[in-house]
Amino acid sequence: IRRIKIIDVLKREDYGSEVNVKGWVRTRRGSKSVHFIALNDGSTINNVQIVADADKFDDELIKLITTGACLSVTGELVQSVGSGQAVEIRAREIEVLGTCGSDYPMQKKGQSMEYMRTHAHMRLRTNTFGAVFRIRHNMAMAVHRYFHEHGFFYFHTPIITASDCEGAGQMFQVTTKNLYDLKKDDEGKIDYSDDFFGKTTSLTVSGQLEGELGATALGAIYTFGPTFRAENSNTPRHLAEFWMIEPEVAFNDIHDNMDLAEDFIKYCVRWALEHCQDDLAFLNKMIDKTLLERLNFVVENDFVRLPYTKGIEILEEAVKNGRKFEFPIYWGADLASEHERYLVEEYFKRPVILTDYPKEIKAFYMKMNDDGKTVRAMDVLFPQIGEIIGGSEREENYDKLMARIEELNIPMKDMWWYLDTRRFGTCPHSGFGLGFERLILFVTGMQNIRDVIPFPRTPKNAEF
Ligand code: ATP
Ligand code: MG
Ligand code: MG
Ligand code: MG
Hints:
Helix content is about 30%, strand content about 25%. The relative contact order is 0.11. The chain is an alpha+beta fold. The strands form three sheets. The chain has an eight-stranded mixed sheet, sandwiched between helices. Strands 1-2-3-5-4 form a five-stranded mixed beta barrel.
């Protein structure tokens, strides 16, 4: 008899049929005459209840049915009266595939998130993390569907890159050599010509520059892959290894770019509301009681669009009225997440797209506004999180871009291939980067980015 997934068994109505399920024991309770086992196989947040008559099964076997043990159960599908589900299984045969001792780290319910993180390999088996990672999967599907439906091509940019213009200080170097074995030149600088690629290489901090090459050839592309930043601060929103989604579109200006960002996020959230109902209901109950309300609000309401300068005025006004912030706020300052969250959560009470930032706090490739001071940047700011997207219209004019590169002293010889986009048939284009985990944070209501990726990479933490 073939195994059926629990998600499918729970939908069946052919009472009396024999079925087989396999999964892990969540709980076992019972009396002298009957045992109730809640079994979960990861296919859904919901358990199937197994009813085992005590006189049919050995005491020795029942003792092995502990929380976390793995079972194969064959029995009759029966209508349920009290399990919270429509069906349950009256066991005819129970096989213990894997026993689980009392030292099982997920034995106790209600452990702290910190504890869970120290057992990232086993927390996957809990209801909360099961829900989070099923949602994560569904969101990844939504991302691909959205772009596919809108005529974007999934474009793979390299993970090992040689340009370090953007990632100053945040790059993980890639080498096959023990650093001490590499030759040094007269000035004591390491000579990488001896190394595998014959030059300094690093893990990518963004696929954007290569993405621009894709967009100016294929029209509209998106990347969706692992991204690496040696973030030396410990925050609930930064990982050293995260997944970034970066659409890039030829002929789009900053307004098209904002429309795309808003439409895309709403599509993904709507997708979750439609496809992850059970998991979201669970998280709404256990993690954050306002989760569903917030998700529905986001899909139903327009985002605020506001120039940076206006945002600063609002924040300065708040400070004048006694609102305290940890970091100073003034025109020219990069916003800290406390400022972003003030605008979103307290002032506008909805997502905000902030535009036209001072050029000094944004990257070299962003298109200059006529004022000569601000660039066509856009950050999408979300409740609980702050920045969820950073994007811009790109400077397509070769001379203007060169001037900026020289101004910032960016090493030119690494950039020749990028500049070719502006030398040969340059065109206006725009794009943005969305941190996938920040989207998952919002959609799941989880508080810490370490809890929405199976195996988080953060400073001093690469255990699992
Ligand atoms: P932040 O201000 O939060 O450090 P950033 O401005 O450095 O972010 P960008 O370079 O604009 O980030 O990258 C685009 C998006 O990638 C960000 O809006 C964010 O969603 C995500 N992101 C950036 N750094 C990280 C990180 N270390 N971990 C997870 N997501 C990140
Ligand atoms: Mg950063
Ligand atoms: Mg930022
Ligand atoms: Mg940014």
